[in-house]
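Project channel, design review

CF: Before we commit to the Ectopseudomonas alcaliphila constructs, I'd like one complete example in the thread so the newer folks can see what an input/output pair looks like. Taking DUF922 domain-containing protein.
RD: sounds good, go ahead.
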Amino acid sequence: MKRTIVTLLPLLLWLALTAQAEVQEHLQEQYYDLQVASGQSLSRALNQASPIRQNGQIYHAYTRWQVQWKFWWREQRDGRCQIDLTRTQLNATITLPRLGGGDAQQRQRFEQYLGALREHELGHYRIGQAAAAEIDAALLQTPEYPSCAELQQQANRRANAILQRHAEQERQYDQQTGHGRSQGAWLTE
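CF: and here is what came back for DUF922 domain-containing protein:
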């Protein structure tokens, strides 16, 4: 048993000294109420009920994600700085409609639509996940800098560039899917 401890000690020491990362994710869904009368158009009812409006457009669902990061560094005697630990957090909220009323056919159609709508919004969330993971990895891979101030500036610059790239990916995702239309998130009525 003593031999195992001696063998593991250098490994544990090495692990403690290497840079460490941590990505935390928090996803929640929130709903707005949709009341539909029997025979009423689901599409029209959704357009009236939706609180999601951007650039003059009405949307039936929305995903908002935000990536926050922190990093800690080790400063050498000569002033050089290297990141030791990161903590990256992804917080996201998906807003979806919740149906009240309607007949059996409307409820069935709504459930199909809602499934496709949720899947589209999860695509936005996955882009946020990718951004968080890439930011965390980029921070850990930030090279050593001559000063901690320079390290901090360069690490934040890298993270913000990644955020911008993923924001553009979201725009492209909506464009390619027609805001979910090609994924089945479309009502013809």
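RD: helpful, thanks. The helical segments are 2-17, 42-49, 104-140, 148-177.
CF: Confidence is low (pLDDT under 50) at residues 1-18.
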